[in-house]
Amino acid sequence: MKVFVALLFALIAVSISSASANDFQCGVYRCPDMHACVCDAGVFRCVYRSQVEVSVKNVGHRMVKDVTIGTVGMNLKDNNAIWGISVEGRDIHLPSYVDLAPGQTHQFGYINKGNNAATLYVKNVKIN
């Protein structure tokens, strides 16, 4: 019974200390809040990522068939770090199946390395 109580006390102490810690273990490092732990070829490091959600809204009075959006400073985490949009070189486009009626919105997102979102600007709009 004494062993059980001691074990229970040790488990509670570990749980409380783990729950109250703001940082988490990353190899021999401790990552601060808002950072991710990455193990690359056995090397651990803490990195900062920004997840961004973007809305494209048709504020005109005609159907929009495609929008070409230019990017500056887009440094994606990897090839799977962008969704809901088509990527062509340094530009992004609405997916081919998306047409925006007046007032309609399309959302996409991406995960950028670092703590800044990319600068996005409209390069071309194809109207029907």
UniProtKB/TrEMBL annotation:
SMART domains: CBM49. Keywords: Signal. GO terms for cellular component: extracellular matrix. Residues 1-21 form the signal peptide. GO terms for molecular function: carbohydrate binding; extracellular matrix structural constituent. One of its GO terms (biological process) is extracellular matrix organization. Residues 37-115 form the Carbohydrate binding domain. Pfam families: CBM49. This is Carbohydrate binding domain-containing protein.
